[in-house]
């Protein structure tokens, strides 16, 4: 089963970065307090450092252009087709064993 990534709001990411800096705690302890992974917190901190204190955020379904939206849709469609093809290959393999 595929594990879905949790999506956090821009405000939460910004607050998490501020919490890390104001708490004086280690990244792991701050992440544990916020119930997020240390790697996520680190990514947000790095993003804030490189963007003048602003954490880059792109919510689910927010695309900068119609072309990007179409590309995302086509990638999803391709993944679905590849999954279906894998299932058919496995079924053919099972049927050929008999």
UniProtKB/TrEMBL annotation:
<dbReference type="GO" id="GO:0006313">
    <property type="term" value="P:DNA transposition"/>
</dbReference>
<dbReference type="InterPro" id="IPR051839">
    <property type="entry name" value="RD_transcriptional_regulator"/>
</dbReference>
<protein>
    <submittedName>
        <fullName>Transposase</fullName>
    </submittedName>
</protein>
<dbReference type="InterPro" id="IPR002514">
    <property type="entry name" value="Transposase_8"/>
</dbReference>
<dbReference type="InterPro" id="IPR009057">
    <property type="entry name" value="Homeodomain-like_sf"/>
</dbReference>
<dbReference type="GO" id="GO:0004803">
    <property type="term" value="F:transposase activity"/>
</dbReference>
<feature type="coiled-coil region">
    <location>
        <begin position="64"/>
        <end position="98"/>
    </location>
</feature>
<dbReference type="Pfam" id="PF01527">
    <property type="entry name" value="HTH_Tnp_1"/>
</dbReference>
<dbReference type="GO" id="GO:0003677">
    <property type="term" value="F:DNA binding"/>
</dbReference>
<keyword id="KW-0175">Coiled coil</keyword>
